[in-house]
């Protein structure tokens, strides 16, 4: 037989034990839920990252032909249209202090007609334009007295071409290896 005080102590101990067990279960369930949620979130982020990389690779693959066309067709033509202004700028720099001497301009065969208007419009000095088959398209040599300059747009285009090829290579690597 138990006394009433003893019975009350046993009930209180049982209650505390049940309460503690319930609390521990709740903490364990919360930790399990948190772990499950973090796992799902991690997998979703991986999927999202992979999808983003896939989309980026596909978009870059679609843009690559545009870059190629830009370097192969648009830029060379645009550079030839603006080469006259580049020549004028270089002539001005060369002519500093030597305005009494004519500028000799050597251009590729067939390009003097395109360059002459820009030179005549923007330079007051005498410019002697000669065509030469020794230089390639996009190249121009300027000579004023003992000073000489070369303008070579083919080097710029070549550099752009190499950059696009490197971009294309890295794009193909990204497609292959993700």
Task: Tell me briefly what this model is.
By secondary structure, the protein is an alpha+beta fold.
From the spread of the alpha carbons, the general shape counts as rod-shaped
pLDDT < 50 runs, ≥5 residues? none
Q: Order of strands across the biggest sheet?
A: 2-1-3-4
Kindly state the mean pLDDT as a whole number? 76
Helices and strands, in order, run as: HEHEEEH
Written description of the protein model:
This is ABC transporter ATP-binding protein. GO terms for molecular function: ATP binding. The protein has 178 residues and is an alpha+beta fold. The protein has one domain (4-177). Helix content is 72%, strand content 13%. It contains three helices and four strands; from the N terminus they run αβαβββα. The protein has helices at residues 4-95, 112-122, 153-177, and strands at 103-108, 127-132, 139-144, 147-152. A four-stranded mixed beta sheet has the order 2-1-3-4. Helix 1 packs across helix 2 (112-122). The protein starts with a helix and ends with a helix. The mean pLDDT is 76.
